[in-house]
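Quick one - inputs below.
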Amino acid sequence: MKSIGLYLHIPFCIKKCNYCDFVSYSQNDEMIDSYVKALLYEIKMYSDNLSDYKIETIFIGGGTPSILKPEKIDKITNEIFKAFNISENPEFTIESNPGTLTDEKLKIYKDLGINRLSMGLQSFNDDILRFIGRIHSKKDFLENYYLARNIGFKNINVDLIYGLPNQTSCDWEETLKEILKLDTEHVSAYSLKIEEGTVFKGLFDQDKLNLPDEDEDRNMYHLAIELLNSNGINQYEISNFSKPGYQCKHNLIYWNNKNYLGLGVSAHSYLNACRYANTNNIWEYIDSIKNNKYPVVTKEPKTKEDEMTETVFLNLRLKEGLGIQYFKDRFNKSIFEVYGDKIEKLDKLGLITIDHNHIMLTKYGVDVSNQVFVEFL
Ligand code: SF4
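Output:
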């Protein structure tokens, strides 16, 4: 049986954060009921399509899945296990936001086999949390974090953002040091991007956002690498760090350009060299499912060349880089035969480095990674 990852999108949040452009709606019981009903049906619709696959990872993401009543997560999980072949011990993650977890919810998650909790903290500075529109404080986070630990969650990711308005390298260092005290297994640290349609984009256009400059942003990134690596939380991807053995298996499926099925509004899938995207509109999503139609709005078959290119730049995100032998085994061609001139150019520019079996971004290459990826397009 072929391996696959499963993603389910829960597009509800208590309120929209000021920087967020994800598809998410504010909490509304009626909408949630209709959505979960549709999602359960979409799971059933894919049951036959996936009969040759074994699901190795399950990721319930959002939005804020932890705002759902736990019986809804229970129903979704039961439907997944009924519809698909699930490996014996899948990595099973749920995303959550501090302030939305309770003793009851966490116990139910644990009983359902959810073995990885991802918590959106972003910063340990309460002033910054308020300014970026988060619903929680540092105290809320700590209460939820220790509750999860006490209930027995042994694999916790904490999401952080740097380059935030009014944030200095000192603030960021404080956040990282607090994280280290928690002894968490996994950390994601992304630089803030100002996205279209967000509150921050409006403020940015009016010159009302006090953002760290490019140098300080890079400084914060390098600080994260230095502090986390030197404390045993090792960088394994441009923005992801973990203790040994705790890399996120689900996200590794994306970075290795392998198959995954995404269900729910705005979810994406990659199946048999074809990319699919579900509609971004929740009502359109619910209507399609009601009419027994897949809510897919784009279908993009990939040629062998596309697949090679995407594998190269996704793999280059990984610290260990792109496996030279892996590429040969997967595509039956040497990477140097396909991209020899580009590799030579990037090597000369000091953006990549090559050892006996891997091609990796250099420190400078990571800082300008988009420039490297574009080279392969
Ligand atoms: S909680 Fe996450 S998904 Fe929801 S609005 Fe904030 S950043 Fe977006």
